[in-house]
Design a protein that fits this description.
- The protein has 358 residues and is α+β, with helices and mostly antiparallel strands.
- The protein is built from 15 helices and 9 strands.
- Among the domains are: 170 residues, no CATH class; 58 residues.
- Helices cover 43% and strands 13% of the residues.
- α4 packs across α5, α7 crosses α9 and α9 crosses α11.
Length: 358
């Protein structure tokens, strides 16, 4: 995202004007409320943002989804991080936030507000951080290193968990330092927490395609033991990772892939010790996917589970005569889940060279 746009990113997200620009959100540093609507998720995953039209914003305010936003300055120690954000706060440090720290120092304070919401029944914290983990860390670090007067500039919003998730998701789509696997796992948690396992409903709310969401959720299933094969989580991108996640559905092949991942993890560690370049992501994917690709593994049934963890759909055979599908009774899957399972199965067959289109 361009620096000029980023400088007013959250202000634009919370603006109720259709063509809001850098100064669209009034400066309510005196604590006065600012009416605002929630962000409209992007049409598809992208780094840009979509602003609400005025009528839509007012309608959402009236519905109670976002009641008001107030500009405040607070002690970051009184703010805890919302667990629904995909960014790993524990991995933030002076080195990877140095540019932001220097920018805050140069501007004599933070210019882009974070988004908070009020907490209840927490003696240690007054607020919860929805957006702005790096800014929170940078101000906290500066306060601990000779700048105790700096405070965290924030927009205090009255929003529920699902709206908070969509707001955080819209901002984080623009962040290259959040890996696809972190985002995928955040989506998997949100699917259970906010959408009762209904992928179609989640895709509608996020304004993404159901097929893209299905693939992203599939990637979330890749275990940590396999991810250790990569030099960094940012190497695990959706497109190649989806094929790897599909291969792990075969239990026999999964064991072989796990063994190969352990060997690659040891190799990556050795390269780090010797200060050598890591094994590139493309090679890691190839070596993992080349594992256990014999005839038995290739023709193994593909099985997809419902949100209740029970088998919902299986591909029994796939050959030149066609594809044989079994729908399991008692899985608890609704029509949307079965449709998504079928889409995922067809994509998996395609990735294995067994697709219907040849």
């Amino acid at each position: 995202m361009a620096k000029g746009k980023q400088a007013n990113y959250l202000a634009s997200l919370l603006s109720d004007e259709p063509d809001a620009d850098a100064g669209a959100l009034p400066d309510a540093s005196d604590g006065s409320p600012i009416s605002a609507g929630p962000p409209e998720p992007a049409e598809r995953p992208r780094t840009g943002m979509t602003l609400l039209g005025r009528e839509s914003a007012l309608a959402r305010i009236a519905s109670g989804e976002v009641k008001q936003v107030t500009r405040i300055s607070v002690d970051p120690a009184r703010v805890r991080v919302w667990p629904g954000n995909p960014r790993r706060y524990s991995e933030l440090n002076e080195e990877n936030t140095r540019e932001l720290i220097d920018s805050i120092l140069a501007e004599n304070g933070q210019k882009i507000p974070v988004v908070l919401r009020k907490l209840k029944d927490d003696a240690s914290h007054d607020f919860e951080l929805i957006i702005g983990s790096r800014r929170h860390f940078a101000i906290s670090w500066l306060r601990a290193h000779n700048y105790p007067d700096f405070k965290l500039l924030a927009d205090l919003a009255d929003i529920d968990d699902e709206t908070a998730f969509r707001l955080a998701d819209l901002e984080n789509r623009a962040r290259k330092d959040i890996s696809d696997i972190e985002r995928a796992r955040s989506y998997a948690q949100a699917l259970k927490a906010h959408y009762a396992g209904h992928q179609a409903r989640m895709a509608e709310r996020l304004r993404v395609s159901q097929s893209w969401l299905s693939k992203t959720l599939k990637v979330a299933s890749i275990p940590d033991a396999v991810l250790t094969a990569f030099a960094a989580l940012t190497d695990v991108q959706i497109k190649p990772a989806y094929g790897l996640a599909a291969a792990l559905d075969d239990r026999g092949r999964a064991r072989q892939i796990l063994d190969a991942a352990k060997g690659l993890a040891a190799e990556q560690a050795g390269r780090r010790r010797r200060q050598e370049p890591p094994v590139p992501a493309a090679e890691v994917f190839k070596r993992l996917l080349d594992t256990g690709t014999g005839e038995k593994a290739t023709n193994a049934p593909l099985t997809y589970q419902s949100r209740f963890g029970r088998n919902a759909l299986s591909i029994l055979t796939a050959n030149r005569q066609g594809v044989t599908i079994r729908l399991h009774p008692g899985s608890g899957a609704d029509h949307d889940e079965l449709a998504e399972a079928l889409r995922a199965a067809l994509a998996d067959l395609e990735s294995q060279g067994r697709g219907l289109i040849r």
